[in-house]
Structure formats: C-alpha cells, structure tokens
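Cross-posted from the bioinformatics board.
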Amino acid sequence: MSAGSKLGNRTALVTGGSSGIGAAVAECFAAEGALVMIADIDDAGGAAVVRGIEGKGGRAVFRHVDVTVRADVRAMVHAAAALGGGLNILCNNAMSNPSDHYTVDERWDVMLESGLTAYWAAATEAAPILARSGHGAIVSIASIAGARIGIDFASEAYSAAKAGILGLTRKLAKKYGRDGVRANAICPGIIETPRWRSPDSVEPQFARRYRQMAPLGRFGLPSEVAALALFLASDDASYITGQDLAIDGGFTTAYHFESIAFD
Ligand SMILES: NC(=O)c1ccc[n+]([C@@H]2O[C@H](COP(=O)([O-])OP(=O)(O)OC[C@H]3O[C@@H](n4cnc5c(N)ncnc54)[C@H](O)[C@@H]3O)[C@@H](O)[C@H]2O)c1
C-alpha cells in the first residue's frame, strides 16, 4: 500500500469493502489519508479490513449494510457523512451473487437491486452531501461484461445491471456537474478476487481463454482497480466526469483472437 495524501481530510464510503476490489479500494483510499466507511454484509471480513487499515495508521470503520435494502442504503450515506462531517467520495462496488437456490426471477431482482438500484439510491442520496464537500466524486464499479461485451458466463441480470451503471453514470454527471460532483464508472475485466474463483480451484476454460486473448496475458489485481478508483476519486481527475474506463489488460479492444487454438 502506497502512503500519500491525495485524499487527506476527505471521507469516503465504499460498498462491498470487506473483500476483493472493494477491500483494495478501501485500503488504497485510507492509505491516501481518507477516513473510510466500509459497508458490507460480511462483518468478519469488514472487521479484518478495518484492522489492516488501522494497523498501517489509516482510519476506517465498518457498517453492516445489505445493499438490497434500499432504506439501509440511504441511511448508510448519512451515517458515513456523520462520521467526518460530510462526504467526499462514494464508491459503489457491492453486488450480490445469489446462489443457485434462487429462482431466475429472484436472481434478476436481487442482482438489479444490489448492482444497479443501490448504486442509484446511494448516489442520489449522497449527491447533495458530496456537493457541499467541494470535492464530490462518485466512482461506480461496473464490468466489461454487459457494459462492453456480451459474455456467456455473465447472466442477463449481471449484464443488464452493469450496462445500466454506465447510463446512470452519465446522467449523474450531467445532473450534478454544476454542483461540483463528478461521476465515473470502471469496467474491470477478470480481476483476481474471491468472486470468480477460489485460489485452489481449477482454472475454468473461459479464464484460460481470457488470459490467452488479453494483450497483457494475465488477470488484473484488485490493487490495480483500486489505483484507477483513486485516480477518479481524487483531484487528479478534476476534469473527468461521465466516463467509463475499462481496466481489462486490453481484452475488449485488442484481443488476440487470431492465435487461439480452439478445441
Ligand atoms: N472480480 C472480477 O473479475 C470482477 C470483474 C468485473 C466487475 N467486478 C465487480 O466488482 C465488484 C466487486 O467484486 P469482487 O470481485 O471484489 O467480489 P468479492 O466477492 O470479492 O467482494 C464483493 C463484496 O460485496 C459484498 N456484498 C455482496 N452482496 C452484498 C450486499 N447485498 N450488501 C452489501 N455487501 C454485499 C460481499 O460480502 C463482498 O465483501 C462487483 O460489483 C463485481 O461485479 C468484478
């Protein structure tokens, strides 16, 4: 974790910060001086991330929030703002991954509620508070799946939610730009987090193909997504709003389809 002061005296709210990309974003923001609220359903994971941040001299608190509960999403925003006397950064990142026990209709509802509606509810609730901060930034984690390309292993619900984040981001940029609030989205390719594969499981064929086709020839790291989130959340990106940036090793723009030996 690099230590700096790009986010000194700022408060950040990161949903899904107990694991993976969200944890890396929380750690990165804290290392840059932000007071970070991690909102997640995983209490133990969140507590571990907070301990790790505090161990490095950073400031973080955990709040149990299920982002499928809209009232709790809105309350979360005000709780984060109450922490540090305002809110500067909202990172929408959490998305439920419902088990196979759900019906297809339930899966659709849960994924759209967590992966799109919660992003909207948090952003619109936060916008007036972000505006008062003078450095308001919304960074939403989408995906190349749905937002850039159709992918077999990404469900319709996942794809629709992720594509929706881009439309939401552009609307937020327009609606709140004059208030000094910027809104941008990040579209990761395959990032090595617990969401898609446990470290000791066999690599699925799609993942091997991805590595073969991506110009950089590897998966991304949560810390690499966090570095982009930091850039977009900080004053380094002060004239960037309404954008979506892919962080995918070049997969969606320059893939090596010519050299793959398909079986
Ligand atoms: N890992 C990838 O390859 C990849 C690629 C593209 C996009 N993404 C996106 O990045 C984001 C983070 O994914 P990740 O890979 O870090 O996953 P992860 O499973 O490592 O972390 C997700 C976190 O979200 C939390 N969460 C799940 N449902 C929640 C709910 N209802 N309320 C609150 N918290 C909840 C989990 O407890 C967990 O801590 C997601 O939006 C995902 O779609 C991931």
